[in-house]
Specification:
Elements lengths: L3 E6 L6 H13 L8 E6 L5 H4 L7 E5 L16 H6 L4 E4 L2 H6 L4 H13 L3 E6 L3 H5 L3 H13 L4 H4 L3 E4 L13 H19 L1 H5 L3 E4 L4 H8 L6 E4 L6 H8 L5
Parallel strand pairs: 1-2, 1-8, 2-3, 3-4, 4-5, 5-6, 6-7, 7-8
Helix pairs in contact: 5-7, 7-9
The structure holds 2-phosphoglycolic acid.
Length: 252
């Protein structure tokens, strides 16, 4: 069966002291976290090296981004191979902020996914429509395109290694959350796309996370949906008091 996953995306927040205190605080609270959930933290990449030396039984680390090239003259970038070297298992790919502010396209993201799989890292592939797409009823088409263009060149053994994260852009950092029905509808749609291309068994094995103002007050109803396998959490991941209850959102 597929994994339940809750991943915290810290974005560009917290100085070194604050970040270290939060990470250590989460580790001290590990016994409070539902053991059936894979917990992942994506801090700013400058902290990954230090965090990877701190022993945790429950928390895996993710980068927020990596470059598509193996190495070379790409000032400011980090490679998938560097993550492999630090044993950072996961990496976000195609977060909407990267698409919007850094012009990341589906074609580029395809290369990032390939680089990560090459280094045996797990891409957490983010996708989702902007508000105008939803208002014009174009949201399914947009999501289909984002998923197909960046991922459908993969074979069955490769696609099964990818974690999916549906993040409607209108819900990110806005306090507006997709309703449980809207989340389920899109997750089911994506799983059907996967089933058509790779077969039902493969589609059923892939985790699809929801992101966008997911917090303690709504995590339970979102995670109760059959095709919602966890969350990618921004704002609520910055405090132990809000992140741990989201991790525990699967507990009935
Ligand atoms: P949010 O961010 O939880 O603050 O809406 C989610 C994300 O960007 O991954």
């Amino acid at each position: 069966m597929r994994k339940n996953i809750v991943a915290g995306n810290w974005k560009m927040n917290m100085n070194h002291q604050e970040a270290l205190a939060l990470y250590n605080g989460l580790i001290s609270n590990e016994s409070e976290m539902d053991e059936n959930v894979q917990v992942i933290i994506a801090p700013p990449s400058i902290y990954l090296s230090e965090f990877s030396q701190i022993k945790s039984n429950r928390i895996a680390l993710a980068a927020q981004n990596c470059n598509e090239n193996e190495k070379g003259a790409y000032t400011g970038e980090i490679s998938a191979g560097m993550l492999e070297n630090l044993e950072v298992q996961y990496c976000l790919v195609g977060h909407s902020e990267r698409r919007a502010y850094y012009g990341e396209t589906n074609e580029l993201l395809k290369k990032k996914v390939d680089a990560l799989l090459q280094s045996e890292r797990t891409p957490i592939y983010c996708f989702g429509e902007v508000l105008s797409d939803r208002e014009t009823g174009n949201h399914f088409n947009i999501v289909k395109e984002q998923v197909i263009k960046a991922l459908f060149h993969l074979n069955e053994q490769q696609i099964i290694k990818v974690v999916f994260a549906y993040e409607p852009v209108w819900a990110i950092g806005t306090g507006v959350t997709a309703s449980p029905e809207q989340a389920q509808e899109m997750h089911e749609f994506v799983r059907e796309l996967l089933a058509e291309k790779y077969g039902q068994t493969t589609a059923e094995a892939i985790s699809i996370l929801y992101g966008g103002s997911c917090k303690p007050a709504n995590a339970k109803e979102l995670f109760a949906n059959p095709d919602v396998d966890g969350g990618l959490i921004g704002g609520a991941a910055l405090k132990i008091e809000t992140f741990v209850p989201v991790v525990n959102g699967f507990i009935k």
